[in-house]
From TrEMBL, chains A, B:
GO terms for cellular component: cytosol. It holds the Pfam family PNPOx_N. NCBIfam families: Rv0121_F420. One of its GO terms (molecular function) is oxidoreductase activity, acting on the CH-CH group of donors. It comes from Virgisporangium aurantiacum. InterPro entries: F420-dep_enz_PPOX_Rv0121, F420H2_bilvrd_red/Heme_oxyg, Pyridox_Oxase_N, Split_barrel_FMN-bd. This is PPOX class F420-dependent oxidoreductase. Residues 12-129 form the Pyridoxamine 5'-phosphate oxidase N-terminal domain. Keywords: Oxidoreductase.
Length: 136, 136
């Protein structure tokens, strides 16, 4: 079961259309949510739909403010297990109200964001460690 | 952006072929890894390939032993964002060396496990809360 080297891991991650953000609150309770994202350098950007009337939707923001450590996972599943792979980016996240660079890279990757630019807030995740695995 | 009620969330989760397990260690550092799983009642079972020579592969087990709280996410992504959905199961995990019920339900769901039963250890996750969201 071969590991992916950090360069291979980073390339596969950058091309993925969706990833899953794992955070934890100050007491260590984990949380996970899917997110679209764009990678530039070793920074992952994502836009957060604030949904001010649904407090649970903001848990990722509260978690990041209390505990900036995050793990972001991109993976490929198929019933043919010889094609499986995953990549994990471990790093630290910040919440940004304004993020022009995030808007640029997200709009370049997703047509939806070109048509309707996200209002934010945004997450900027500085990746400290790339890891990954591929079945073949 | 409609929430899924717990019954709907549970049904979608049960049918998913892969989920992502988010754990955190005793210091609150989150971790995420994809996993195949089977749901029976409100218990999620998964088999862990122990890989004794690769200590990083055991981080999910060390985390669960230190901090049993976990979040498990199943989601659907497509570039047509009107079809997106996700379901999250929040609960507590245990590590089991032997788990006959896990073997039975995993083999019923995955052909690979019928051909080669997993040796374990296993994770048993008692789901305390189902939540989910669907774009349409």
């Amino acid at each position: 079961m071969p590991s992916l080297d950090p360069g291979q891991a980073r390339l596969r991650f950058a091309a993925a259309r969706v990833a899953r953000l794992a955070t934890a609150d100050a007491t260590g309770a984990p949380h996970a949510v899917p997110m679209v994202f764009a990678l530039t350098g070793d920074t992952i950007y994502s836009a957060v739909d604030a949904k001010p009337k649904r407090t649970t939707a903001l848990r990722r923001l509260a978690n990041v403010r209390a505990n900036p450590r995050v793990a972001v996972l991109a993976d490929h599943y198929d019933d043919d297990w010889s094609t499986l792979w995953w990549v994990r980016a471990d790093g630290e996240a910040r919440v940004l109200d304004q993020a022009p660079e995030a808007l640029t890279v997200l709009a370049a990757k997703y047509e939806q964001y070109r048509n309707t630019p996200p209002q934010g807030p945004f997450l900027a995740i500085e990746v400290r460690h790339w890891s990954g695995w591929s079945a073949s």
